Amino acid sequence: MPPLNRCLPALRRIRLANATFERSIARQTPRLPALPAYALLPQRRWQHAATASASQETSNEDEAGQPTPSKQIKYTSDSYPDLKRDSRFKQLDEADVKHFKEILGSSGSLIDGVTQDAQDDLEGYNADWMRKYRGQARLVLKPTTKEQVSGIMKYCNEKMIAVNPQGGNTGLVGGSVPVFDEVVINLGKMNKIRSFDEVSGVLVADAGVILEEADSYLAERGYIFPLDLGAKGTCQLGGNVATNAGGLRFLRYGSLHGNVLGVEAVLPDGRIFNDLFTLPKNNTGFDLKQLFIGAEGTIGIITGISVHCPQRSPAVNVAYFGLDSYEKTQQAFREAKKKLGEILSAFEMMDGAAQKLYAKANGAKLPLEGEYPFYCLVETSGSNGEHDEAKLNDFLEHVMGEEIVADGVVAQDETQVQSLWACREGISESSQHFGGVYKYDLSIPLPELYDLVPATRQRMEDEGLLDAEDDAKPVMDVVGYGHMGDQNLHLNVVMRRYDKKVEAALEPWVYEWVRERQGSISAEHGLGLAKRNYVGYSRDEEMIKLMRQIKQLYDPNGIMNPYKYVSGG
Amino acid sequence: MPPLNRCLPALRRIRLANATFERSIARQTPRLPALPAYALLPQRRWQHAATASASQETSNEDEAGQPTPSKQIKYTSDSYPDLKRDSRFKQLDEADVKHFKEILGSSGSLIDGVTQDAQDDLEGYNADWMRKYRGQARLVLKPTTKEQVSGIMKYCNEKMIAVNPQGGNTGLVGGSVPVFDEVVINLGKMNKIRSFDEVSGVLVADAGVILEEADSYLAERGYIFPLDLGAKGTCQLGGNVATNAGGLRFLRYGSLHGNVLGVEAVLPDGRIFNDLFTLPKNNTGFDLKQLFIGAEGTIGIITGISVHCPQRSPAVNVAYFGLDSYEKTQQAFREAKKKLGEILSAFEMMDGAAQKLYAKANGAKLPLEGEYPFYCLVETSGSNGEHDEAKLNDFLEHVMGEEIVADGVVAQDETQVQSLWACREGISESSQHFGGVYKYDLSIPLPELYDLVPATRQRMEDEGLLDAEDDAKPVMDVVGYGHMGDQNLHLNVVMRRYDKKVEAALEPWVYEWVRERQGSISAEHGLGLAKRNYVGYSRDEEMIKLMRQIKQLYDPNGIMNPYKYVSGG
């Protein structure tokens, strides 16, 4: 860029870019609903899973490379032949179903595939949205009270019936669907907001309340849920807490370990863990609820939560930049922290490949005219629009003037805010649009965070597995994006079809790479089934032993969400 | 106040008040050092404990009402005759001391009261600063590495030697000093900052680093420790984490459960709990470090921590108000949240009695000319001074104009900031200036939070225990103050001398009062020895049972900080 640019007011260039973007939006079919686009992705996700596209079908090959029947995802037990059903677990019979029916009474409901054929009804509870995992549950229970959950658990514990707690089933690691015939306990019918205090901002809600519904409820009252993520339209608060979900507001509001004030859960033996405290401070003994935050349903079923919700910021601004290098992206982040201070609410990074993929999968036009190797999305949220604009302008003047960013747009209205966020939030779905995706969710120190992406691409090329054009190669692309402000990279290996050779080349190689940099192999997605054998890459033996002690203490029969989490070798 | 006042610009009145305050400060002996006054309180605290005043001495009566020898605080075992030394614990002998000397080598050190007389040297480790608790340890160990701590614990576990982990010994519930002859393991010599990342703001430090030193280190680098409290000049990071300290920045930065990223600890059997992670997100299994946050040294000794530190706000403003009622104080809080939004960093409440007590104990003049039943201190911290001032002025105009506050001052410089904070932070020490104090640290829902103070006063009066002037009565005053923004009340019963009749009238009455309002009997001070028998007022039986299971799991021999925490009846 010519030095002349330093004299050009940054804002004039920004406005120019906006005008271009507005025209480009106008040309597109209006595909954005009134709600933020990313809020609706999960629903679309599930449609994808239920009505498989041709490319997805062919991606489901059995061991011999034969496509499995249409609409059916391969059973997890077939994909992971090393997994064997634990023979200690009881096989369900008619008496069990009868007993559960009695517990549920008229308020709850169940899907009975034990005494009748309910294959189709069960499918949505057995299969995950990525079409990677498929269990063989024959019974889904939908309790409406914690007492019902307690009755179910007590019975299961006595009879050695394995269970799979399930929220919105939007997980990415196979933790939310059964592996074999575990009973699915779905929390979807426990979906009431129990109370909200408009002075303290404390929300008490059933575990099955959908995140987006909680957030809308709070929005009407001037508050915000301290967590936001792409699956918000489907995922449930209980599942969010059980998986310690991170997401888009983490940079500003921090971890659920800080925001969740109370947890109500049913223990494997039916006892109720009653810690639904609603005040910010409570130093009365061990903070045991913390164990349930991120336990992924392995020591109990969360039935209710209380959470401290911050005030909603009336002013929200979103800017989207193109940058010439990862080094410049880091610089932009440092400047955003400095210049935007307490109003910075998101700093997201997307690489050029991720943005091209998004545009290709959605037939969308990107906000900037030029192409850049890196993009970032910066969001501010504050209480005073004028002040925030002044801070943002100061930031923009600086990063444009110093040529830290090459080009940028600032959203001028809510529709543009949604369009810009869609460029970031649409990547996940776009990644699996063409046949499948291997997803990695990693914590890596900022300076090295992006290095993994070119390294992975190189590895795929070296192994002869990647080609952008050649359909004979299983890998189409390798893209990187993520919550840069949280040092959290999402690495997606975009597949034409799932291929065990690719998986073998990626794992444990990716985990080894992360371990060398003292990162985490699971930043926010959890362990589930996918990473059960890789915990050792982020935790030492002693820690894993201590974790298994906790599991043993709370669930001595091992009936809770078996085969997953820290159960691996 | 006349309606005319609505037309009077709030700021003119505020400036007037400031001028008065400035004159009043000028008249006083300059008693405020360059550092914030409250930062230096703990040192003064300890001086108090070491050089007991006449009134404090007479407050130490033995069972027969005889004053104990000068400079000596009553033994805890005498104050609590129901406590018996656990006979399973080994009595130290010469061989033990020799072994510990070998472990500590030349880098660590010990105070040996086993093979020689070291009574005076041991006193500061046996007695707490409130002069309420006094143990009988004959050995203090000061290791310098986690390996030394590990060696010590392994030996103690094998030999059944009870230990008392100790940080800065600034606790308020008798948790930081031994009860009988437990070996004190003092972390003071593990006092190095291990690393700091200037981009992410992550600090890794030894447990024995003093909070104020950590904060000063961070201040030089543009960051702030997410915790601040009166004892900052003496308390240590390890102790802060072990007690899940709350303090003055909680409203803004939240709980240590959210800010602490990693914990390194030595388990009772000498194993090292190695979870000193430095990135914000890690969902690789149970978040076990959370158990150590607030465990009060009962399941392990924290030797190192990593913590996410926010950026330091360059602009800090402090205002101090007089208000006519608690209802108006609540209104002021709601307005502060609304008008100050993301820059509100503290909202502290002090009642009139608390402020008078502070003035009396310190010979200080209060910032406002008039007397009010309530006062509050509001602090803002932000990245842009002009914006913050505009927000603050908007808030001031509103609360003055609407007569929510009756009068107020705004600090014009750092000295005034310190003076205003001293009015809040000085209450704790002032409360025990006249002979002693019964302190309660409670979480109570905001609307009822203050009700406990007049109720307690009434009870003291009804029992004939309180008189402001009559020295024959043990209770001089009942004052209430606290972190109103966190729904955290500090109730102090100001004593002329300790009196078991007062204690009997207060406990469990206070705890019953709090239980009825679903509050917590320990908001931020912890359980220690003081509340070991009262956990049941805030936790149900099932929860306490689960807590004891954790204790049993980690410390089957029960050697860690015995007689305290959840060990009570």
UniProtKB/TrEMBL annotation, chains A, B:
Keyword terms, alphabetized: FAD, Flavoprotein, Oxidoreductase
Xref: InterPro entries: FAD-bd_oxidored_4_C, FAD-bd_PCMH, FAD-bd_PCMH-like_sf, FAD-bd_PCMH_sub1, FAD-bd_PCMH_sub2, FAD-linked_Oxase-like_C, FAD-oxidored/transferase_4, Oxid_FAD_bind_N
Reaction equation(s) it catalyzes: (R)-lactate + 2 Fe(III)-[cytochrome c] = 2 Fe(II)-[cytochrome c] + pyruvate + 2 H(+)
Protein origin, superkingdom: Eukaryota
Enzyme Commission no: 1.1.2.4
Molecular function GO labels: D-lactate dehydrogenase (cytochrome) activity; FAD binding
Domain FAD-binding PCMH-type: 133-312
Cross-referenced PANTHER family: D-2-HYDROXYGLUTARATE DEHYDROGENASE, MITOCHONDRIAL
Protein name, entry field: D-lactate dehydrogenase (cytochrome)
